[in-house]
Amino acid sequence: MVEQGVSTAQKLPLGFTFSFPCKQEGLTCAKLINWTKGFNASDVEGSDVVTLLRDACRRREDIDIDVVAVLNDTVGTLMACAFKENSCQVGVIVGTGTNACYMEKLSRIGKLQGELPEDNLPDEMIINTEWGAFGDDGAMDSVITEFDRQVDANSINPGKQLFEKMISGMYMGELVRVVLASLAREGLLFNGDAEAISRHGCFPTKFVSEIENDLLEGEDATFQKTFQILEDIGIERVSNADCANVAYTCSLVSTRAAHLTAAAIATLLNRMKLPYVTVGVDGSVYRFHPTFPRLLDEKIDQLIEGDLEYQLMLSEDGSGRGAALVAAVATRMKRERMGNA
């Protein structure tokens, strides 16, 4: 902050982006429900993460931090895009994990009925869907494959975040690896040599993007990058057919991920029934996968109802800028209340 010319001599308002399922009891109170995305720090679940952050800040005597808001990264994405485009009503993350939030009418939020005073407040609220946990109750059993179940069983939180494990960057590469290992054991890949590809974690999601870039060459594809990746993993005597089949497997897994995400977004748009909605999107999979944005857009267009229209908008650092916007508004409102007291 010193390098950026920010004075540490005064209390600094902070917007805290916390990208995990929480029970939010206020603008500055959020109790962690459970860790996701491979995190598993002890003695945090059930605690107010804002209190923990404030305690940690107080232990540093060289800076005075005032946490004025805690928000999910999807909310940050929505806010960052809404600052530029006021039709933004949905925020989506497709990165290490996946989640979404959207604007909902208060009259449709059953949990709030009877709790809302008639005080001329806005008639909408941002709902954090935590859709990564969709399917944990068995609702997706008909589409979950044996490969999905294997990835889930080997994860840090079996039985949890099943939708997320079918989509996000945390698991996409591992899901491809599990499929390739199965094909190799059946003698359909790598001359039946499954040893190298059977190592857990040897096929990160970045390989999926790099290999699918080879597919963009079309019929003239030489699979140069695919060859290199497979050799680096330790697979010997890789053939052109192996490379083509690996690339095809990558495309199937990522296409399914895009289509599942599209189905979830289309469900929100169909529920909102607004004539035009901007959907703010952020996350490494959306940003860096070569075909994911196009596949997502095409499938949403097929799934939305009637004459509804939408656009996808890439969020520029939603977690940072969105949190800063919320912090700025919260600070202004706090000062106005103090001035009117």
UniProtKB/TrEMBL annotation:
GO cellular component: cytosol; mitochondrion
Reaction it catalyzes: a D-hexose + ATP = a D-hexose 6-phosphate + ADP + H(+); D-glucose + ATP = D-glucose 6-phosphate + ADP + H(+); D-fructose + ATP = D-fructose 6-phosphate + ADP + H(+)
Keyword terms of this UniProt record: ATP-binding, Glycolysis, Kinase, Nucleotide-binding, Transferase
Top-rank EC class of the record's enzyme: transferase
GO MF annotations in UniProt: ATP binding; D-glucose binding; fructokinase activity; glucokinase activity
Domain Hexokinase C-terminal positions: 90-329
Residues spanning the signal sequence: none
Alphabetical list of Pfam families matching this protein: Hexokinase_1 (PF00349), Hexokinase_2 (PF03727)
Domain Hexokinase N-terminal: 9-83
Pathways per UniProt: Carbohydrate metabolism; hexose metabolism; Carbohydrate degradation; glycolysis; D-glyceraldehyde 3-phosphate and glycerone phosphate from D-glucose: step 1/4
InterPro entries for the chain: ATPase_NBD, Hexokinase, Hexokinase_BS, Hexokinase_C, Hexokinase_N
Gene3D superfamilies in UniProt: 3.30.420.40, 3.40.367.20
Family: Belongs to the hexokinase family.
Name by which UniProt lists this protein: Phosphotransferase
Organism: Teladorsagia circumcincta
